[in-house]
Amino acid sequence: MFVFPEYGSGGFGIPPLEAMNAGTPVVASNTGPLPEVIADGGLLSSNKELAGWVYQVYTDGNLRKKLISSGFNRAKLFHPGTVASHLIKCFDEIALAQ
Questions:
Q1: Other CB atoms closer than 10 Å to residue 17's CB: what's the count?
Q2: How far, in Å, CA of 34 to CA of 31, rounded?
Q3: In angstroms, rounded to a whole number, what is the distance separating the alpha carbons of residues 37 and 4?
Q4: Strand order in the sheet with 26-29
Q5: What is the pLDDT of residues 2-52, one digit of tens each?
Q6: Which domains, and CATH codes, for the chain?
């Protein structure tokens, strides 16, 4: 399990994304960019409630399996090849609009 409390701006959220890609369940704060990056690929809550989610993931095997699966699926959206193809598509649409 990867636990990622957020106390400031924190940047993009690469560490939770890497954890999801590695098949590690993620429990993170619901602040900054984390909700958008993690979405349904992990569990999001306030920093005060993280311990409760950690306990649930630790004790509930079905929840762990669900988080591993959804984390893999979410991380695929941020694969460099996927991001590049989306950017190329956007650039093509912009070029055609001009």
A1: 21
A2: 6
A3: 13
A4: 2-4, 26-29, 43-45
A5: 999 987 666 788 999 999 999 999 999 999 889 999 999 999 999 899 999
A6: 2-97 (3.40.50.2000)
* Other beta carbons less than 10 A from residue 80's beta carbon: 7
Beta-bridged to residue 12, according to DSSP, are none
The model scores a pTM over 0.85: no
Report yes or no: 57 and 1 within 8 Å, Cβ to Cβ.
Answer: yes
Q: Are 35 and 57 in contact (CB under 8 A)?
A: no
- Residue pointed to by tokens 């306990």: 55
Q: How far apart are CA 92 and CA 64, in angstroms?
A: 40
